[in-house]
Amino acid sequence: MTFRVDEHASEIQEIDHFDGGIGWIAHPEERMKRASHALEKDGEVWVIDPVDAPGVDNLLTELGDVTGVVVLLDRHTRDAETVANRHNVPVYLPRFFDGVTEDLDAPVARFSDELSDTGIGALELVDSRFWQEAALYDREEGTLVVPESLGASSYFLAGSERLGVHPMRRLVPPRDALERFSPERILVGHGAGITTDAPSALEEALSTSRRRIPRLTAGMLWRLGPFSG
After folding, report:
1. CATH code at 171?
2. Which superkingdom heads the taxonomic lineage of this protein's source (predicted)?
3. Where are the beta strands (DSSP E) in the chain?
4. CA-to-CA distance for 138 and 174, rounded, in angstroms?
5. Is residue 211 part of a domain?
6. Labelling 212: which of 4, 15, 61, 203 has CA 20 to 30 A away?
7. CA contacts within 13 A on the Cβ side of 129
Protein backbone atom coordinates (compact mmCIF):
# COMPACT_ATOMS: atom_id res chain seq x y z
CA MET A 1 0.00 0.00 0.00
CA THR A 2 1.35 3.45 -0.96
CA PHE A 3 0.73 6.51 1.18
CA ARG A 4 0.99 10.02 -0.19
CA VAL A 5 1.57 13.22 1.71
CA ASP A 6 -1.69 15.01 2.51
CA GLU A 7 -1.21 18.73 1.99
CA HIS A 8 -3.86 19.26 4.64
CA ALA A 9 -2.10 17.00 7.15
CA SER A 10 -2.26 18.02 10.78
CA GLU A 11 0.87 19.32 12.46
CA ILE A 12 3.55 16.64 12.73
CA GLN A 13 4.07 15.02 16.11
CA GLU A 14 7.65 15.12 17.33
CA ILE A 15 8.78 11.92 19.07
CA ASP A 16 11.94 10.24 20.34
CA HIS A 17 13.96 13.44 20.75
CA PHE A 18 17.42 12.72 22.17
CA ASP A 19 20.96 14.00 21.82
CA GLY A 20 21.90 13.00 18.28
CA GLY A 21 18.48 11.99 17.03
CA ILE A 22 14.85 12.87 16.52
CA GLY A 23 11.66 11.25 15.27
CA TRP A 24 8.29 12.36 13.99
CA ILE A 25 4.86 11.06 13.05
CA ALA A 26 3.65 13.03 10.04
CA HIS A 27 0.00 12.04 10.40
CA PRO A 28 -0.77 11.49 14.11
CA GLU A 29 -4.38 10.61 13.28
CA GLU A 30 -3.35 7.44 11.42
CA ARG A 31 -4.02 4.16 13.21
CA MET A 32 -0.65 2.73 12.13
CA LYS A 33 1.29 5.77 13.46
CA ARG A 34 3.98 5.68 10.75
CA ALA A 35 7.14 6.96 12.42
CA SER A 36 10.25 8.42 10.80
CA HIS A 37 13.63 9.21 12.31
CA ALA A 38 16.88 11.06 11.76
CA LEU A 39 20.20 10.23 13.40
CA GLU A 40 23.19 12.54 13.61
CA LYS A 41 26.56 10.83 13.55
CA ASP A 42 29.85 12.74 13.40
CA GLY A 43 28.16 15.75 11.83
CA GLU A 44 26.21 13.70 9.27
CA VAL A 45 22.42 13.36 9.34
CA TRP A 46 20.81 10.11 8.21
CA VAL A 47 17.05 10.15 7.62
CA ILE A 48 15.34 6.77 8.12
CA ASP A 49 12.11 5.61 6.43
CA PRO A 50 10.75 9.15 6.15
CA VAL A 51 7.14 10.21 5.72
CA ASP A 52 7.32 13.78 4.46
CA ALA A 53 5.15 16.65 5.70
CA PRO A 54 5.41 20.39 6.25
CA GLY A 55 7.84 21.01 9.08
CA VAL A 56 10.06 17.96 8.54
CA ASP A 57 13.00 20.02 7.26
CA ASN A 58 12.79 22.23 10.35
CA LEU A 59 13.41 19.13 12.49
CA LEU A 60 16.27 17.98 10.29
CA THR A 61 17.92 21.40 10.40
CA GLU A 62 18.20 21.04 14.19
CA LEU A 63 20.59 18.13 13.60
CA GLY A 64 22.60 19.41 10.63
CA ASP A 65 22.91 18.72 6.92
CA VAL A 66 21.35 15.56 5.50
CA THR A 67 23.91 13.05 4.19
CA GLY A 68 21.60 10.23 3.13
CA VAL A 69 18.12 8.75 3.35
CA VAL A 70 17.91 5.15 4.55
CA VAL A 71 15.19 2.59 3.76
CA LEU A 72 15.20 -0.33 6.21
CA LEU A 73 12.08 -2.17 5.01
CA ASP A 74 11.33 -2.95 1.38
CA ARG A 75 7.81 -1.50 1.64
CA HIS A 76 8.95 1.58 3.58
CA THR A 77 10.09 3.56 0.54
CA ARG A 78 7.43 6.03 1.73
CA ASP A 79 8.73 9.51 0.77
CA ALA A 80 12.41 8.53 0.65
CA GLU A 81 12.94 9.75 -2.91
CA THR A 82 11.23 13.08 -2.19
CA VAL A 83 13.40 13.82 0.83
CA ALA A 84 16.56 12.55 -0.87
CA ASN A 85 16.04 14.63 -4.00
CA ARG A 86 15.19 17.71 -1.99
CA HIS A 87 18.51 17.41 -0.15
CA ASN A 88 20.44 16.14 -3.19
CA VAL A 89 21.57 12.92 -1.46
CA PRO A 90 21.24 9.19 -2.28
CA VAL A 91 18.77 6.71 -0.90
CA TYR A 92 20.71 4.00 0.97
CA LEU A 93 19.45 0.41 0.75
CA PRO A 94 20.70 -2.77 2.44
CA ARG A 95 22.73 -4.78 -0.05
CA PHE A 96 20.41 -7.80 0.16
CA PHE A 97 17.29 -5.80 -0.83
CA ASP A 98 15.95 -6.89 -4.20
CA GLY A 99 13.35 -5.09 -6.33
CA VAL A 100 13.27 -1.86 -4.31
CA THR A 101 15.41 0.28 -6.61
CA GLU A 102 12.68 0.20 -9.25
CA ASP A 103 10.36 2.04 -6.85
CA LEU A 104 12.77 4.93 -6.35
CA ASP A 105 13.35 7.85 -8.69
CA ALA A 106 16.54 8.91 -6.92
CA PRO A 107 20.22 7.90 -6.79
CA VAL A 108 20.72 4.68 -4.79
CA ALA A 109 23.69 3.56 -2.67
CA ARG A 110 24.10 0.22 -0.91
CA PHE A 111 25.41 -0.85 2.49
CA SER A 112 26.01 -4.23 4.11
CA ASP A 113 26.99 -4.68 7.78
CA GLU A 114 27.66 -0.98 8.41
CA LEU A 115 25.77 2.12 7.30
CA SER A 116 28.31 3.74 5.00
CA ASP A 117 31.33 4.49 7.24
CA THR A 118 29.33 5.74 10.22
CA GLY A 119 30.17 2.94 12.63
CA ILE A 120 26.43 2.20 12.90
CA GLY A 121 26.02 -1.54 12.49
CA ALA A 122 23.41 -3.04 10.17
CA LEU A 123 21.93 -6.51 10.43
CA GLU A 124 19.57 -8.57 8.32
CA LEU A 125 16.27 -9.36 10.04
CA VAL A 126 14.19 -10.81 7.20
CA ASP A 127 15.10 -11.74 3.64
CA SER A 128 12.23 -13.42 1.84
CA ARG A 129 10.17 -12.96 -1.26
CA PHE A 130 7.50 -11.13 0.72
CA TRP A 131 9.50 -9.26 3.37
CA GLN A 132 12.97 -7.69 3.38
CA GLU A 133 14.02 -5.89 6.54
CA ALA A 134 17.21 -4.65 8.16
CA ALA A 135 17.88 -3.08 11.56
CA LEU A 136 20.49 -0.58 12.69
CA TYR A 137 22.39 -0.56 15.97
CA ASP A 138 24.62 2.27 17.13
CA ARG A 139 26.50 0.61 19.95
CA GLU A 140 28.23 3.83 20.95
CA GLU A 141 24.96 5.71 21.44
CA GLY A 142 22.84 2.71 22.44
CA THR A 143 20.28 3.24 19.68
CA LEU A 144 18.49 0.28 18.08
CA VAL A 145 16.30 0.95 15.03
CA VAL A 146 13.81 -1.77 14.02
CA PRO A 147 11.39 -0.64 11.29
CA GLU A 148 8.75 -3.39 11.30
CA SER A 149 9.51 -6.57 13.26
CA LEU A 150 8.89 -4.52 16.42
CA GLY A 151 6.42 -1.70 16.87
CA ALA A 152 4.65 0.47 19.42
CA SER A 153 1.36 1.38 17.74
CA SER A 154 -1.79 -0.38 18.92
CA TYR A 155 -1.60 -2.79 15.96
CA PHE A 156 1.54 -4.35 17.51
CA LEU A 157 0.60 -4.37 21.18
CA ALA A 158 -1.08 -7.00 23.32
CA GLY A 159 -2.46 -5.91 26.67
CA SER A 160 -0.07 -3.65 28.57
CA GLU A 161 2.91 -4.15 26.25
CA ARG A 162 5.03 -1.07 25.55
CA LEU A 163 6.73 -2.80 22.64
CA GLY A 164 5.34 -5.63 20.55
CA VAL A 165 6.40 -8.05 17.84
CA HIS A 166 4.64 -7.62 14.50
CA PRO A 167 1.56 -9.88 14.33
CA MET A 168 2.99 -11.76 11.34
CA ARG A 169 6.21 -12.50 13.27
CA ARG A 170 4.74 -13.48 16.64
CA LEU A 171 5.12 -17.21 16.07
CA VAL A 172 8.80 -16.81 15.11
CA PRO A 173 10.03 -13.60 16.78
CA PRO A 174 13.49 -12.24 15.87
CA ARG A 175 15.13 -13.45 19.09
CA ASP A 176 18.38 -14.67 17.55
CA ALA A 177 18.95 -11.32 15.84
CA LEU A 178 17.90 -8.93 18.62
CA GLU A 179 18.16 -10.50 22.08
CA ARG A 180 21.92 -9.87 22.24
CA PHE A 181 21.38 -6.11 22.35
CA SER A 182 20.92 -3.99 25.46
CA PRO A 183 19.92 -0.65 23.93
CA GLU A 184 19.37 2.65 25.66
CA ARG A 185 16.50 3.34 23.26
CA ILE A 186 14.54 1.45 20.60
CA LEU A 187 13.18 3.36 17.60
CA VAL A 188 10.44 1.71 15.54
CA GLY A 189 8.62 2.36 12.29
CA HIS A 190 5.18 2.55 13.89
CA GLY A 191 4.58 4.53 17.07
CA ALA A 192 6.81 6.38 19.50
CA GLY A 193 9.98 4.57 20.49
CA ILE A 194 11.03 3.10 23.82
CA THR A 195 13.33 5.50 25.67
CA THR A 196 13.07 4.21 29.25
CA ASP A 197 14.09 0.74 30.42
CA ALA A 198 14.46 -0.35 26.81
CA PRO A 199 16.28 -3.67 27.52
CA SER A 200 13.40 -5.00 29.61
CA ALA A 201 10.83 -3.92 27.01
CA LEU A 202 12.82 -5.73 24.32
CA GLU A 203 13.23 -8.88 26.40
CA GLU A 204 9.54 -8.95 27.28
CA ALA A 205 8.44 -8.43 23.68
CA LEU A 206 10.62 -11.26 22.39
CA SER A 207 10.03 -13.75 25.21
CA THR A 208 6.23 -13.38 25.43
CA SER A 209 5.55 -12.97 21.72
CA ARG A 210 3.90 -16.36 21.12
CA ARG A 211 1.82 -16.72 24.24
CA ARG A 212 0.28 -13.27 23.83
CA ILE A 213 -1.08 -13.99 20.34
CA PRO A 214 -4.63 -14.66 21.65
CA ARG A 215 -4.64 -11.37 23.55
CA LEU A 216 -3.35 -9.47 20.51
CA THR A 217 -5.99 -11.07 18.29
CA ALA A 218 -8.75 -10.25 20.74
CA GLY A 219 -7.62 -6.63 20.86
CA MET A 220 -7.63 -6.40 17.06
CA LEU A 221 -11.13 -7.83 16.82
CA TRP A 222 -12.38 -5.41 19.47
CA ARG A 223 -10.91 -2.38 17.64
CA LEU A 224 -12.38 -3.52 14.31
CA GLY A 225 -15.75 -4.51 15.74
CA PRO A 226 -18.92 -2.59 16.55
CA PHE A 227 -17.58 -1.43 19.93
CA SER A 228 -14.53 0.35 18.45
CA GLY A 229 -16.35 3.67 18.08
Report:
1. 3.60.15.10
2. Archaea
3. 13-18, 21-25, 35-41, 44-48, 66-70, 91-94, 108-111, 121-127, 132-138, 143-146, 150-151, 164-165, 185-188
4. 18
5. yes
6. 15
7. 0
Q: What is the mean pLDDT of each run of 10 residues along the chain (229 residues)?
A: 45 95 96 96 97 96 97 97 98 97 96 97 97 98 98 93 96 96 98 97 96 79 46
Exposure string over 2-24, b if 16+ CB within 10 A, otherwise e: eeebeeebeebbebbebeebbbb
Q: Is residue 3 part of a domain?
A: no
Instruction: Read off φ and ψ for residue 18, nearest 5 degrees.
Output: -145, 170
Q: pLDDT tens-digit profile of 11-61?
A: 899 999 999 999 999 999 998 999 999 999 999 999 999 999 999 999 999
User: Residue 100 is part of which domain span?
Assistant: 13-224
Contacts of 17 (CB under 8 A, 6+ apart): 23
**Total structural domains in the chain?**
1
Residue 179: inside a domain: yes
Give a yes or no: residue 229 inside a domain. no
Instruction: Check residue 4 and give its pLDDT.
Output: 43
- Nearest CA to 51 out of 102, 13, 90 is that of 13
